[in-house]
Amino acid sequence: MNLIIKKILVKSTHFILSLVFLWGVIPGEIIFAQDGLDQEIKDLEAFAKVYQLIQAKYYKSVSRRHLIEAAIQGMIDSLDQHTQALNRKSMSLLEKQSIGNYNGIGVTLGYQDFKYIVLSVVPDSPADISGLKPDDVIIQINGIIIKPNQSGLIDQALMENTDQPVRIHFYHPHQPQNVIKVNINRASIRLHSTELIRHTADVLIIKIKEFQKHTVTEILKGLQNQNFTTIIIDLRNNPGGLLLSAIETTQIFLGQGNLVEVRDKNDKLVEKYVSRNRKTDPNLKLYVLLNNRSASAAEILAGALKDREVGTIIGEQSYGKGTVQTIYPIHDDLYIKLTTASYYTASGISFDGIGVTPHFKIKDTDAELYSKKDLIFQKALALSREKPSKN
What we know:
Number of domains: 3
Strand content: 25-35%
CATH topology of the largest domain: 2-enoyl-CoA Hydratase, Chain A, domain 1
Number of strands: 19
Radius of gyration: 24 Å
Helix content: 25-40%
Largest sheet: 6 strands, antiparallel
CATH superfamily of the largest domain: 2-enoyl-CoA Hydratase, Chain A, domain 1
CATH class of the largest domain: Alpha Beta
Number of helices: 11
């Protein structure tokens, strides 16, 4: 590596400064392949020359920091939709959201088909009161037209701790021509990740809204000293959340064995998650409810149960977000959330871009949850009442 640095130093002092600023804070992460070294140096030199040219000849004064940040953002924009640049404020908001206690309007967004879609709305939150619903498309926030790879900025705008309202332009998917404009005040949002509902003496509904730090504790507390013949896990509108929370939740319902694998771009195994749980009730009937907004960690749970043939999946094809994001600190006010690997079920199936396929496909509706018009839930109830077939 010293030889590489000497070569570059002779070529361009400014280039070295740029190189150290961009990558020097993550020692050991950047490895130059020997075969493509010369071409890589030429490409990086070209970047340095453009940087110097703009500094010297552009007709307006442009700060060095602006150019570097624009270059970083340009690299990120060329990647997948889940890779983001985050500042310190966005990181703090992300951490608060992971424990379900934050200031905001009460929505979770996803990026699908080049649009920012509302995945879920917290009941009685400012967003709910203002008329935002799942599947609504956000097109403008505070006068800024939404573009790809801006989720960090969007989250910051929606959850910023300020008394000023956020102005949102959105439309319902069945009426794209009717753009709705609303001013929404932020409020303190406290979202419990789960809701346990005893539907009948024998049927328990576990509604998991998002996988957070306390999800497993909440579920285990609800299951303590309780006997149910049927458990229905409702993952509809669940955008994902913390991976380890999803893994720990999955272990509650699965016996000993593999749960999910993480593989890098070379298909090399990075991590394997295994259940150590030796006790499962063979007589327990388990059903998982999905819709097309069930994503990421929710798909890991559903995929693991389906892969191990434990439980029945009912509803719609899930969202299909099967990639891993790792956050790297670059400097005090810049973090990169980079897609670094893919999830695979224990049998080697990837659901990225595909989703988890239910055993019974039923279209989700806007009906009241767990009512007679909630067809996905009603299917689970009907199956739970069936007697086992005799072989």
